[in-house]
């Protein structure tokens, strides 16, 4: 338990990927740091109820799907295959516990004071914490960092009840596989969790207001993913507006309106509302101390050094502009800490990758082809299908393509989009190339191990200049 009053160089509010990384880096640079977390464990949404548990379930459900659908093609016979959902969920929880415990160990190693409770900024240099174990603590600080993250957006006409109409949090721990899961929203959260439960046996219907899934993705790549997920059995209703719903016992009815005005009715036993997330900025006392907050978005405006309009208070992660991604928050946390210590902290927002962890995965960095056209850029495109990649053939994972956009004059890489196996790992090569202002030829001239999936990236780079070897 912290003392009633303690002073630190830095107090961080929120122990998610942005907050805990900022705390660690600041401590490495000699700052005394306290980090306030409202949960009983560190790691924030990502480690506790987001990125990590969802990937654990994605991997477990993918293994079940492979055993059920494709092991026989590899000469592996399996009998009596069934899902042990309690064991699967227990494994997911064990993965989460291991990582959150690991963060606590890092705090101890770096002499960071964890404070468990609900924080409120009391002044430009103090934070009052209502402790989870009772009582209050006041933390004085030379600087305060807001890293409070975000929360799921609720639909007022279809409010969360935590059991039948749920957010991603509850969808990570259904006590049984749903008979019919209705997913509202075809972004990455809805598609990932929809994939989990479809693989495990649920009927999954995805209802999306916009005319395509993953609307921020390159159109061609989003279309490839759409076709793949449809082939896997997910049913999509696009350009469809959800207008209401009702719960009767264990059943739920969702009402919607199609593009042509026709009323649609969906009946199921679970509804996952995945229409986005909003910054968690309410209840922090920001207005009382004069910190500006955008009334429409809930985001906190910052300058180029992460400072709010109150010089001693900074903000990072989901609380500020930019994609709501854990690795973006981590980069900002490191850059903030280094700037606070008088060093040069920087985040290149043009080279932050985005990944959708369905199967196949969809990973991207840089601009889409649609953005290139909108900006009237002179560009060239190189593509290479995994169908022509030796390792993909050997793995029986031939679905998807690598697409590279490069400036027509300089050959500088403008964007890379990968729909295919292990795209989340392969995108790092593209990020590195773009970070160093590299060209498609740079990728093409680098030796790639054979056989490997990454050879598809090299071939796509060669294809920019119309000289792919295996295409």
**Fourth-tier CATH superfamily name of the largest domain:** FAD/NAD(P)-binding domain
- CATH topology of the largest domain, anyone? FAD/NAD(P)-binding domain
Q: What is the C-alpha radius of gyration, as a whole number of Å?
A: 24 Å
Whole-number tally of structural domains: 3
Question: Which regions have little confidence, pLDDT < 50, spanning 5+ residues?
Answer: none
End-to-end Cα distance, whole Å, is: 63 Å
- The name of the CATH architecture of the largest domain is 3-Layer(bba) Sandwich
Strand content: 25-35%
**Major β-sheet profile:** 5 strands, mixed, barrel
> Based on helices, strands and strand pairing, what is the structural class?
alpha/beta
Task: Give the oligomeric state.
Answer: single chain
Q: Return the CATH class of the largest domain.
A: Alpha Beta
Give the overall shape: globular
- Per DSSP E runs of 2 or more residues, the count of β-strands stands at 21
Task: Give the helix tally.
Answer: 14
Helix content: 25-40%
Would you summarize the structure shown here?
This protein has 471 residues and is of the alpha/beta class.
List the SSEs and their pairings.
Blueprint: E1 5-13, H1 17-28, E2 33-37, H2 44-49, H3 51-69, H4 85-109, E3 113-123, E4 126-131, E5 136-146, E6 150-152, E7 165-166, H5 168-171, E8 180-184, H6 188-199, E9 203-207, H7 219-231, E10 235-237, E11 241-248, E12 251-257, E13 263-268, E14 270-273, E15 277-279, H8 286-289, E16 313-315, H9 326-340, E17 354-356, E18 361-366, H10 369-374, E19 379-385, H11 390-395, E20 401-407, E21 413-420, H12 423-435, H13 440-445, H14 455-464
Parallel strand pairs: 1-2, 1-5, 2-3, 5-16, 7-14, 8-9, 8-14, 9-10
Antiparallel strand pairs: 3-4, 4-5, 6-15, 11-12, 12-13, 17-18, 18-21, 19-20, 20-21
